[in-house]
Design goal:
12 strands, 191 residues, endonuclease activity, Uma2, alpha+beta
Protein backbone atom coordinates (compact mmCIF):
# COMPACT_ATOMS: atom_id res chain seq x y z
CA UNK A 1 0.00 0.00 0.00
CA UNK A 2 1.26 3.48 -0.83
CA UNK A 3 1.73 5.63 2.28
CA UNK A 4 0.94 9.30 1.76
CA UNK A 5 1.51 12.34 3.94
CA UNK A 6 0.22 15.00 1.56
CA UNK A 7 -2.62 15.00 -0.91
CA UNK A 8 -1.66 13.96 -4.42
CA UNK A 9 -2.28 16.16 -7.41
CA UNK A 10 -3.74 14.57 -10.54
CA UNK A 11 -0.30 14.66 -12.20
CA UNK A 12 1.40 13.08 -9.17
CA UNK A 13 -1.16 10.29 -9.04
CA UNK A 14 -0.90 9.57 -12.76
CA UNK A 15 2.90 9.40 -12.51
CA UNK A 16 2.96 6.86 -9.64
CA UNK A 17 4.87 3.70 -10.58
CA UNK A 18 2.86 0.65 -11.59
CA UNK A 19 2.40 -1.97 -8.90
CA UNK A 20 0.60 -5.25 -8.34
CA UNK A 21 -2.22 -3.34 -6.62
CA UNK A 22 -4.78 -1.19 -8.41
CA UNK A 23 -5.31 2.30 -7.00
CA UNK A 24 -8.00 4.94 -7.54
CA UNK A 25 -7.54 8.65 -6.79
CA UNK A 26 -10.12 9.67 -4.17
CA UNK A 27 -9.97 12.98 -2.30
CA UNK A 28 -6.30 13.40 -3.17
CA UNK A 29 -5.31 9.94 -1.91
CA UNK A 30 -4.30 6.76 -3.72
CA UNK A 31 -6.91 4.30 -2.44
CA UNK A 32 -6.69 0.57 -3.27
CA UNK A 33 -9.60 -0.48 -5.49
CA UNK A 34 -9.63 -3.82 -3.69
CA UNK A 35 -9.09 -3.10 -0.01
CA UNK A 36 -8.15 -6.65 0.96
CA UNK A 37 -7.53 -10.09 -0.51
CA UNK A 38 -11.19 -11.02 0.02
CA UNK A 39 -12.22 -8.24 -2.38
CA UNK A 40 -9.90 -9.12 -5.23
CA UNK A 41 -11.77 -10.45 -8.27
CA UNK A 42 -12.47 -14.15 -8.33
CA UNK A 43 -14.08 -16.53 -10.85
CA UNK A 44 -17.61 -15.06 -10.85
CA UNK A 45 -16.24 -11.52 -11.24
CA UNK A 46 -13.69 -12.43 -13.92
CA UNK A 47 -15.98 -14.61 -16.01
CA UNK A 48 -18.77 -12.00 -15.88
CA UNK A 49 -16.29 -9.29 -16.92
CA UNK A 50 -15.25 -11.48 -19.86
CA UNK A 51 -18.85 -12.16 -20.89
CA UNK A 52 -19.76 -8.46 -20.78
CA UNK A 53 -16.57 -7.54 -22.65
CA UNK A 54 -17.40 -9.94 -25.49
CA UNK A 55 -21.02 -8.79 -25.84
CA UNK A 56 -20.28 -5.07 -25.52
CA UNK A 57 -17.21 -5.19 -27.80
CA UNK A 58 -19.15 -6.96 -30.55
CA UNK A 59 -21.91 -4.33 -30.31
CA UNK A 60 -19.42 -1.41 -30.13
CA UNK A 61 -17.26 -2.54 -33.06
CA UNK A 62 -17.99 0.53 -35.25
CA UNK A 63 -19.24 2.77 -32.45
CA UNK A 64 -16.51 3.07 -29.82
CA UNK A 65 -14.21 1.35 -27.34
CA UNK A 66 -14.94 -1.08 -24.54
CA UNK A 67 -12.01 -1.35 -22.14
CA UNK A 68 -11.41 -3.44 -18.99
CA UNK A 69 -10.16 -1.58 -15.89
CA UNK A 70 -9.33 1.69 -17.62
CA UNK A 71 -8.85 4.60 -15.25
CA UNK A 72 -11.08 7.59 -16.02
CA UNK A 73 -10.37 11.27 -15.31
CA UNK A 74 -13.44 12.68 -13.53
CA UNK A 75 -14.34 15.19 -10.82
CA UNK A 76 -15.95 14.29 -7.48
CA UNK A 77 -16.87 16.98 -4.93
CA UNK A 78 -14.86 19.54 -6.95
CA UNK A 79 -11.72 17.39 -6.72
CA UNK A 80 -9.94 15.23 -9.27
CA UNK A 81 -11.22 11.68 -9.11
CA UNK A 82 -9.70 8.72 -10.95
CA UNK A 83 -11.92 5.65 -10.56
CA UNK A 84 -11.20 2.39 -12.37
CA UNK A 85 -14.49 0.84 -13.51
CA UNK A 86 -14.49 -2.85 -14.34
CA UNK A 87 -15.59 -1.94 -17.89
CA UNK A 88 -15.81 1.39 -19.68
CA UNK A 89 -17.53 2.26 -22.96
CA UNK A 90 -16.69 5.51 -24.71
CA UNK A 91 -17.96 6.33 -28.20
CA UNK A 92 -15.82 7.49 -31.10
CA UNK A 93 -17.88 10.69 -31.00
CA UNK A 94 -16.37 11.49 -27.61
CA UNK A 95 -12.92 9.98 -28.19
CA UNK A 96 -11.98 9.70 -31.88
CA UNK A 97 -11.06 6.36 -33.38
CA UNK A 98 -7.53 7.61 -34.15
CA UNK A 99 -6.83 8.52 -30.48
CA UNK A 100 -4.06 6.24 -29.27
CA UNK A 101 -2.35 7.15 -26.00
CA UNK A 102 -1.41 5.03 -23.03
CA UNK A 103 -3.18 7.11 -20.41
CA UNK A 104 -6.35 7.45 -18.38
CA UNK A 105 -9.56 8.04 -20.33
CA UNK A 106 -9.48 11.81 -20.98
CA UNK A 107 -13.24 12.19 -21.64
CA UNK A 108 -16.40 11.27 -19.81
CA UNK A 109 -17.53 7.84 -21.03
CA UNK A 110 -21.14 7.00 -21.82
CA UNK A 111 -21.16 3.78 -19.75
CA UNK A 112 -19.24 2.34 -16.84
CA UNK A 113 -19.81 -1.12 -15.40
CA UNK A 114 -18.99 -2.11 -11.83
CA UNK A 115 -19.18 -5.77 -10.81
CA UNK A 116 -19.64 -6.33 -7.09
CA UNK A 117 -16.62 -8.17 -5.68
CA UNK A 118 -16.62 -10.25 -2.50
CA UNK A 119 -16.33 -7.84 0.42
CA UNK A 120 -18.15 -5.06 -1.44
CA UNK A 121 -21.82 -4.30 -0.91
CA UNK A 122 -24.57 -3.14 -3.20
CA UNK A 123 -24.71 -0.02 -1.00
CA UNK A 124 -21.03 0.70 -1.77
CA UNK A 125 -21.84 0.47 -5.48
CA UNK A 126 -24.93 2.72 -5.18
CA UNK A 127 -22.72 5.41 -3.68
CA UNK A 128 -20.11 5.00 -6.42
CA UNK A 129 -22.85 5.00 -9.09
CA UNK A 130 -24.17 8.32 -7.78
CA UNK A 131 -20.67 9.83 -8.03
CA UNK A 132 -20.35 8.55 -11.60
CA UNK A 133 -23.68 10.16 -12.53
CA UNK A 134 -22.72 13.45 -10.85
CA UNK A 135 -19.50 13.39 -12.91
CA UNK A 136 -21.55 13.28 -16.12
CA UNK A 137 -21.55 9.59 -17.03
CA UNK A 138 -24.85 8.73 -18.72
CA UNK A 139 -25.21 5.09 -17.64
CA UNK A 140 -23.86 3.03 -14.77
CA UNK A 141 -24.42 -0.71 -14.56
CA UNK A 142 -23.92 -2.46 -11.25
CA UNK A 143 -23.65 -6.20 -11.75
CA UNK A 144 -24.36 -8.60 -8.90
CA UNK A 145 -23.02 -12.05 -9.74
CA UNK A 146 -24.67 -13.67 -6.70
CA UNK A 147 -28.24 -12.50 -7.40
CA UNK A 148 -27.40 -12.51 -11.15
CA UNK A 149 -28.88 -9.07 -11.72
CA UNK A 150 -27.81 -5.89 -13.47
CA UNK A 151 -29.00 -2.61 -11.98
CA UNK A 152 -28.99 0.33 -14.38
CA UNK A 153 -28.49 3.84 -13.02
CA UNK A 154 -29.18 7.03 -14.99
CA UNK A 155 -29.47 10.63 -13.85
CA UNK A 156 -32.98 10.91 -15.34
CA UNK A 157 -34.71 8.00 -13.57
CA UNK A 158 -34.67 5.73 -10.56
CA UNK A 159 -32.39 2.68 -10.76
CA UNK A 160 -33.89 -0.34 -12.53
CA UNK A 161 -32.83 -3.89 -11.71
CA UNK A 162 -32.93 -6.42 -14.56
CA UNK A 163 -33.19 -10.20 -14.10
CA UNK A 164 -33.40 -13.28 -16.26
CA UNK A 165 -34.85 -12.46 -19.72
CA UNK A 166 -35.53 -8.75 -19.09
CA UNK A 167 -34.00 -6.74 -21.95
CA UNK A 168 -31.56 -3.97 -21.11
CA UNK A 169 -31.53 -1.17 -23.68
CA UNK A 170 -31.01 2.58 -23.65
CA UNK A 171 -30.77 5.34 -26.27
CA UNK A 172 -27.19 6.05 -25.16
CA UNK A 173 -26.31 2.54 -26.43
CA UNK A 174 -28.27 2.41 -29.73
CA UNK A 175 -29.35 -1.05 -30.92
CA UNK A 176 -27.87 -2.82 -27.89
CA UNK A 177 -30.27 -5.30 -26.33
CA UNK A 178 -28.93 -7.79 -23.81
CA UNK A 179 -30.35 -9.74 -20.90
CA UNK A 180 -28.82 -10.81 -17.60
CA UNK A 181 -29.57 -14.41 -18.64
CA UNK A 182 -27.36 -14.03 -21.72
CA UNK A 183 -24.51 -12.47 -19.73
CA UNK A 184 -24.54 -15.00 -16.90
CA UNK A 185 -24.95 -18.00 -19.24
CA UNK A 186 -21.97 -16.84 -21.32
CA UNK A 187 -20.02 -16.40 -18.07
CA UNK A 188 -20.71 -20.04 -17.18
CA UNK A 189 -22.70 -19.09 -14.08
CA UNK A 190 -26.07 -20.33 -15.31
CA UNK A 191 -27.17 -23.42 -17.21
Amino acid sequence: MIQLKNKLSLEEFLSLPESDSVYELVNGEAVPKYKNEQMSPKFFHGSTTGSLLIVLSKWAQEKGRVVVEWSVKLTRNQQDWIPIPDLTYVSYQRLPIDWLKDEACPVTPELVVEIISPGQTFGDMIEKASYYLQAGISLVWVVDTISQTITVFTSSSLPLTFRDQQIISHEVLPNLQITPDEIFKNAGLRK
